[in-house]
């Protein structure tokens, strides 16, 4: 048995209690402090700590236990845990549906998720019981534990990143039950509500209620997680946004930076904690991740998990004495982590190709070339592996071919190239219009350039090698970003996997720049220590460099653009500031919450989904014909939306309404101008707002802003 399993029982129990009990309690205390500092957010956030602890514990504990079973320790085990958890959730949710096991808290541990969790942990324990290989003693590829100062620096970095994100996010969200008003969030809120109703969270058809019964592929890990959280759908989703942006993201980055920084020699171990704390703290200075969390939640979840997966890839592809069996263990964890980020969103396949590709090529080139040169069984195994991998990729591609066609054929007009270059160097949002906050996050770019220049000017060593590999991946991401912003020409198709949307691509540049910036800070510390008069004063203690960089970043950003983070969240929550048109006023939201009592348990409402009616399902549990803004997949429902204004004159309209059991109509006479604070423009079905009132009976109404009114009606024309 491995040495770590021979710990004294008291020591093992104490270490486990620290992680499983103390950390969640610390999370509760920290969130309570943040809510207290939030001030004006109101009493509704008092319900958030249990939801946040459930989200944090649910994402970390299963993956952490699997990582421990496979021999992973320290920061890497903790930061990579959420992506490992996502891997078992991906498999578990896909298996639960065909087995007829509902997706809910009561069946979670006794269903496929529990089975897979136990199997992965048992497999790791059994693998570690195997006899050690010669020359592979000890837990290879695991960084040495941080010293006390290093742990303190890391905790301070994590705390600062969490605080500087969570407070403005909570303050700008408003009430805990304030629904996010963005196109994608309507879809995800409705999908989560349906998962709670149907118990189906499979990515292979779990969205069937949104598509009139048709089963299509759509990534459902976000919805599977949100559906299991206590409280309502809105409360769970808002809390999950806070948890991902302020906790999971910096923790995941910490794991990646730890695996990258461990390549240094043992004489620098005493200073690695300060640099790790700096890089982790700087992960809280970026806004590109937060921007994704304002709408595209499944993709944002995948992005928050991506650094943890890259940490596992870095570990598996690293150099050093490892042995075949140990390398296989590392690859097994990396594969499970990869499944987690890909299960969260399919675009992670391309994200991994861009950022992990250089690491994988560099790590596998030597062993693959050696096996090929030897010929015989080695060459045959390589051919068989390549063939199996190709067939697996082809099969998976064929299975989701419809989604791939939609992504690559998505048409988006060209963007402003100069604006994109500015955003690239300052990490500024590439959606809507926000305060520039010059010079933005330029210090991160400057530190990254220090690492890149040093690496490509002939520097040797593991740090230089890491910097070269990360500069390749980051440069590729930047090139794809510029292609997405550029004119319509053939190479623009390379940005297709990201819907040619710049905001989805720039986050890859963000991850690469954070890694390079941390390596650049280490280069500066070395250069400073080598200056005459500083030798011995700085030496292997780069704390002064880390503190100076951190202070400069807070001043220049300024304070990591606290106000910009607030603007980003207000642009999807505050009815007076919503960027692309407001769908719900506060009074209108209150009317929707009254709807179950006003309409009855069997009501089915039809209305233009862009005027607020789509929220009836996720906010109040009242069924709607159109629970998303998308054009319905059903030709009959599309026809109905285009001809609803003919209610009372075309018998076919009443036939469809009666056949489907539609009882009520939702209207809003707010002008759909798409302006900030104005009404949201419909994607389709403009005639749904023009139904004659003589065939309706008013049930309830509320002001929806600027002198307009939202109204719930009973349909009387089809009795």
What report would you give on this structure?
By secondary structure, this protein is mainly alpha-helical. The chain is 61% helix and 4% strand. Helix 9 runs parallel beside helix 20 and helix 12 packs parallel to helix 14. Helix 24 (615-620) links the parallel strand 1 (604-607) and strand 2. The protein has helices at residues 9-38, 48-69, 74-99, 105-108, 112-129, 148-173, 183-198, 221-228, 233-261, 269-282, 288-292, 297-316, 324-344, 348-374, 376-399, 401-408, 417-426, 442-456, 462-485, 502-530, 543-556, 562-573, 586-599, 615-620, 635-643, 651-660, and strands at 604-607, 623-624, 664-668, 696-705, 708-715. A 5-stranded mixed β-sheet has the order 2-1-3-5-4, covered by helices on one side.
Short description:
This protein is mostly helical. Helix content is 61%, strand content 4%.
Tell me how many strands there are: 5
User: Roughly how many Å apart are the termini?
Assistant: 75 Å
Describe the largest sheet. Answer: 5 strands, mixed
Helical content, roughly? Answer: 55-70%
Could you tell me the mean pLDDT?
85
Helix/strand class: mainly alpha
Beta-strand share of residues = under 5%
Q: Unreliable runs, pLDDT <50, ≥5 residues?
A: 1-21, 136-140
Number of helices: 26
Describe the oligomeric state of these chains in a short phrase: single chain
**What global shape is seen?**
globular
For the largest beta sheet, what order do the strands appear in spatially? 2-1-3-5-4
Radius of gyration: 27 Å
């Amino acid at each position: 048995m491995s040495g770590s399993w021979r710990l004294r029982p008291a020591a093992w129990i104490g270490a486990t209690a620290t992680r499983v009990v103390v950390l969640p309690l610390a999370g509760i205390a920290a969130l309570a402090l943040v809510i207290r500092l939030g001030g004006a957010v109101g009493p509704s956030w008092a319900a958030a700590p249990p939801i946040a602890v459930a989200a944090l514990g649910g994402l970390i504990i299963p993956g952490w236990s699997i990582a421990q079973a496979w021999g992973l320790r320290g920061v890497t085990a903790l930061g990579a845990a959420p992506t490992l958890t996502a891997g078992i959730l991906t498999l578990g949710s896909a298996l639960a549906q065909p087995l007829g096991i509902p997706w809910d808290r009561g069946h979670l541990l006794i269903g496929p998720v529990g089975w897979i969790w136990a199997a992965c942990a048992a497999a790791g324990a059994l693998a570690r019981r195997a006899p050690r290989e010669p020359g592979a003693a000890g837990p290879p590829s695991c960084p040495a534990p941080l010293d006390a100062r290093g742990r303190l620096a890391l905790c301070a970095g994590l705390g600062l990143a969490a605080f500087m994100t969570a407070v403005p996010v909570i303050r700008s969200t408003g009430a805990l039950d304030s629904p996010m008003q963005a196109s994608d969030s309507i879809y995800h809120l409705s999908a989560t509500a349906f998962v709670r109703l149907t118990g189906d969270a499979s990515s292979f058809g779990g969205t069937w209620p949104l598509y009139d019964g048709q089963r299509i592929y759509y990534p459902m890990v976000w919805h599977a997680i949100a559906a299991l959280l206590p409280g309502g759908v809105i409360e769970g989703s808002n809390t999950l946004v806070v948890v991902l942006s302020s906790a999971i993201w910096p923790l995941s980055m910490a794991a990646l930076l730890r695996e990258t920084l461990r390549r240094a020699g043992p004489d620098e171990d005493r200073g690695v904690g300060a640099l790790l704390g700096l890089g982790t703290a700087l992960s809280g200075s970026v806004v590109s991740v937060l921007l994704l969390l304002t709408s595209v939640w499944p993709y944002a979840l995948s992005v928050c998990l991506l650094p943890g997966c890259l940490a596992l890839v870095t570990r598996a592809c690293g150099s050093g004495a490892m042995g075949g069996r140990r390398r296989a263990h590392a690859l097994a964890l990396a594969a499970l982590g990869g499944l987690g980020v890909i299960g969260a969103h399919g675009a992670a396949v391309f994200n991994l190709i861009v950022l992990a590709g250089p690491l994988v090529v560099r790590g596998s080139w030597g062993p693959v070339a050696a096996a090929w040169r030897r010929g015989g069984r080695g060459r045959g195994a390589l051919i068989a592996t390549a063939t199996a991998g190709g067939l697996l990729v082809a099969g998976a591609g064929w299975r989701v071919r419809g989604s791939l066609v939609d992504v690559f054929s998505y048409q988006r007009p060209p963007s402003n190239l100069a604006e994109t270059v500015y955003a690239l160097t300052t990490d500024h949002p590439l959606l809507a219009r926000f305060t520039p906050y010059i010079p933005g996050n330029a210090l991160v770019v400057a530190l990254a350039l220090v690492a890149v220049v040093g690496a490509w000017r002939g520097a040797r060593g593991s740090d230089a090698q890491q910097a070269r590999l990360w500069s390749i991946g980051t440069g590729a991401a930047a090139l794809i970003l510029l292609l997405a912003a550029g004119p319509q020409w053939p190479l623009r198709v390379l940005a297709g996997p990201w819907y040619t949307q710049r905001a989805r691509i720039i986050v890859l540049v963000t991850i690469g720049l954070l890694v390079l910036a941390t390596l650049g800070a280490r280069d500066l510390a070395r250069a400073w220590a080598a200056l005459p008069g500083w030798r011995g004063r700085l030496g292997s203690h780069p704390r002064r460099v880390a503190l100076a960089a951190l202070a400069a970043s807070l001043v220049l950003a300024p304070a990591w653009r606290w106000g910009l983070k607030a603007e980003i969240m207000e642009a999807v929550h505050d009815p007076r500031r919503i960027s692309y048109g407001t769908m719900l006023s506060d009074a209108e939201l209150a009317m929707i919450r009254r709807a179950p009592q006003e309409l009855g348990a069997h009501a089915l409402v039809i209305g233009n989904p862009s005027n607020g009616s789509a929220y009836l399902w996720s906010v109040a549990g009242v069924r709607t014909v159109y629970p998303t803004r998308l054009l319905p997949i059903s030709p009959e429902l599309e026809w109905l939306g285009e001809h609803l204004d003919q209610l009372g004159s075309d018998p076919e309209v009443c036939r469809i309404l009666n056949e489907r059991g539609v009882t009520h109509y939702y209207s809003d006479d707010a002008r759909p101008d798409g302006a900030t604070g104005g009404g949201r423009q419909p994607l389709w079905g403009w005639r749904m707002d023009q139904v004659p009132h003589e065939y309706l009976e008013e049930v309830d109404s509320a002001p929806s802003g600027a002198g307009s009114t939202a109204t719930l009606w009973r349909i009387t024309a089809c009795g």
